[in-house]
């Protein structure tokens, strides 16, 4: 029992004043506003001790709340407010309810509750890139408790990064648009909301293009330049590299640039061919190659003592002059003139004067049999000429096979037009007859092209066709591109003169089924899935070179070649050297020259006629034994080693046949 006398009361009070109150532990509840502290102190030893009271408040020395904790040590004080500082003291009381003075004061700040980081800023980075190319993004956020932060990214498509730095990189394997978002997390693992998305568009890297330039013929010992060109639709060309792949070794200067140089080796006689490869590589490490052949010739190829520049026959040591420009050397003509008279002039059989019935646009010109007054002389070749309005020469060819009968090639003649023609014989001794008398005929008019757009109505493609993929429908650009359905196939081909400075317009385009009789000629490839095509191009001047590009609705075979049909010799030839396929095999670029090699009408009149197309690799090719009538037979024979006709330039594309006609509006007369 506690004594109540004054002296004892004072002693109890004095003893209680000196007890110590110690803050032992703090437990912060995870429940909102349920924060608490645990207080502990040294217990009093008085026998009449009844209990303790804990006093606290939010100001030092000002205790607004008291809690009777009885004799519980340590005691837990609950209901405190997070983020607030509290000041604590303890008093003891006895059974008589006498209370001691305050103990020493202790204070404690209740930690504020952890707040989640604020939403990060929308990630910053490139708006576009290429497949499999890494792109860096960065973001930032703040934390109300100033905690350190880490970040993760949602790259789109269900891909989320690990937690890490504010700046991170990512690459995408599939092209398309992606929304990139970021999220922050503090050291207590509290997470922010996802940021707004930043859109990045990923594109498929496209390969570059490379052009090593046209093949060259140069003199021995001169400096030679290799001028490469190319482009890349995505990220630019990062490197160029020239390498020599064949021929006498030379030292290349500037091999790692677009323009390399070397000195042509010295050659005593004849020629040497050097081959060089140009490789263009883009920033995405895609590369493409192209080659160029440089033919080095000696100053006197045939060794006859006459420099090539002055030698009309640089490869023939027995000839060097051609005074009359007929392609026969003066020495040969002098010998022939002393040997025999010329053969009789041809007699025209059909079509001739007085036949008023119109003929087709591919009429058969026929003469009577060859006759030579000298025994033993045979018919070697025939020259055929056809003239149109204003004496314009539309056909001037010499044939060693079409001797008395010639089918005029397709697209040389126009519908509903008057023409006249003549012929001339050459015998086996080189003697040339007088010209025949003239014959005349008119061509028929058909309804094959009622809309007069230069394409047979049954071969017109849909109005939505855009074979050159320039975003403009082909039918809206009739002057620059014409597209047709290829007979007997599902293929469509567009003939374009875009980028050709010498071309005026595409006048007409027509396809043929590969089963046409005139396509079964000597050396014809077996497989021709793209059928046959004919086209007519207008150029500015006679003798111009035209660069024509053919676009295909489907890719040509990787191993296909460009073949050419010579309608005069009735033969097919491999003419890949004059055709360059695009790397995706969806187009081929042809180089045609009016009046030069490949012009079946044989005259620089602005008209080039040359059937050709794409041939796939196959050991068998259709052939004929030679009809002597401009071609109409069939069979099979290997084409390896066939000599190229001097009248040919074009080639054949993925087994198609092509007739190219380049037309010029200026008058041209045949040579006599």
General description of the model:
This protein has 672 residues and is mainly beta. 3% of the residues lie in helices and 38% in strands. The chain is elongated, with a radius of gyration of 48 Å. The chain starts with 5 loop residues before the first helix and ends in an 8-residue tail after the last strand. 36% of the residues are buried.
Measured between the Cα atoms of the first and last residue, the distance is 155 Å
Mean pLDDT: 82
Q: Strand pairing plus helix content: what structural class?
A: mainly beta
- Give a short account of the largest sheet: 5 strands, mixed
Number of strands: 43
Percentage of residues in DSSP E strands: 35-45%
Identify low-pLDDT runs: 1-34, 619-667
* Overall body shape: elongated
Rg estimate, integer Å: 48 Å
- How many DSSP H or I helices? 2
Share of helical residues: under 10%
Which oligomeric form is depicted? single chain
Strands of the widest sheet, in order across it, are 9-15-14-11-12
